[in-house]
Amino acid sequence: MKWRIASNFALRFIAGETIDDAIDTVIRLNSSGYYVTVDFLGEQSISETDAQNSTLEIVHLLERIQSSQVEANVSIKLSQIGLMLGEEFCKHNLIKILNKANETNNFIRIDMEDSSVTDQTLRILLWARTIYVSVGIVIQSYLYRSEKDIEELMEKRVPIRMVKGAYKESYKISFKTKSDVDTNFVRLSQKIISSIKTIHDVGRDEGRFPPVLAIGTHDENLIKKLININNNSGLTKRCLEIQMLYGIRNDLQSHYLEEGYPIRIYLPYGTHWYPYFMRRLAERPANLWFFIKNLFR
Ligand code: FDA
């Protein structure tokens, strides 16, 4: 993380290292019409102090979002706030975040990590919603189990961000091919869309509060398919939030924004960018070549 060439390149995908960097970028994105979800980078905290510091930073971030009056909610990872150190410890930290979200009228999205923590993450999510309702989750279409998982979530009207999934998983529990993952992405999203019977089911759709379904993808084919399904179900554009990662497919981001869809940019910041950056490189070999070329230059 101290390697300047890599950190400069990582800046393509992150706002910077501080809360000020994040808020400045949110202001810029908001002024172009984008909603934002801010992510304080960090995962797999292995000391209580790290987990507590991350919790404090997220609480501070919620305060800054409120005081700067920007349209942004917050995405968190449970392993960052101590899941590896015990579920009770993690919940203890999560309560602090939920209390602050309640106080500042904001929404928390719990990101989904690798499959070793899916059960725990879903359990803690449902518990969190008994304390503060504006909490959502992420579902990965590469996992076989996701179809069953969304049933309970849909019943409880938990806002879902559908993604393909970013971790290396065994083929015993996940689809092998891109086309199967894509098909499942559409099928699961369609299920959620068809569960929307009244406008009340869409959930709140304002700057900070996403509707019940957000699709987190840069895959143009999938976005087009989901837009068609949304239209054919008689739903308005505001019912389908499209989320993309900061710095990826800016062309698509602005295209769908101009078309009138709510677009939310996932904006990471912080010094712990290494695992996030590696996942972005791994997703697309072209990024790696771009990085290597710049390295030599
Ligand atoms: P796919 O990988 O098929 O890419 C489609 C196209 O998008 C590519 O052809 C390319 O043009 C572009 N693209 C994709 N990745 C790129 C990259 N790294 N660099 C440059 N171009 C790229 N995962 C997870 O497991 N848990 C989570 O909580 C989240 N959260 C999340 C939030 C949001 C807002 C998004 C957009 C994604 C996530 N993800 C995630 C990551 C997700 O699972 C997935 O790994 C990435 O989105 C890449 O997959 P695509 O759907 O974009 O399709």
Q: How would you describe this structure to a colleague?
A:
The chain has 11 helices and 8 strands. The chain is an alpha/beta fold. The chain has one domain (18-270): TIM Barrel (Alpha-Beta Barrel). An 8-stranded parallel β-barrel has the order 1-2-3-4-5-6-7-8, surrounded by 8 helices. Helix 4 (87-103) crosses helix 5 and helix 10 packs across helix 11. The radius of gyration is 18 Å and the shape is globular. Bound molecules: dihydroflavine-adenine dinucleotide. Dihydroflavine-adenine dinucleotide binds next to strand 4, strand 5, strand 7 and helix 10. Residues 111-112, 138, 140, 161, 163-167, 216-219, 243-245, 248-249, 266, 280, 283-284, 287 line the site of dihydroflavine-adenine dinucleotide.
Shape: globular
The total beta strand count reads 8
Query: What is the oligomeric state here?
Result: single chain
Which architecture would the CATH scheme give at its second level? Answer: Alpha-Beta Barrel
Give the percentage of residues in beta strands: 5-15%
Which H/E pattern describes the elements?
HHEHEHEHEHEHEHEHEHH
**What is the count of distinct domains?**
1
| Rg, nearest Å | 18 Å
Largest sheet: 8 strands, parallel, barrel
- How do the strands line up in the largest sheet? 1-2-3-4-5-6-7-8
Let me know the average pLDDT: 94
What is the straight-line distance between the termini? 20 Å
CATH topology, by name, is TIM Barrel
What small molecules does this complex bind?
dihydroflavine-adenine dinucleotide
The CATH class: Alpha Beta
Structural class assignment:
alpha/beta
Percent of residues in helices comes to 40-55%
As residue ranges, the low-confidence spans are none
Number of separate helices: 11
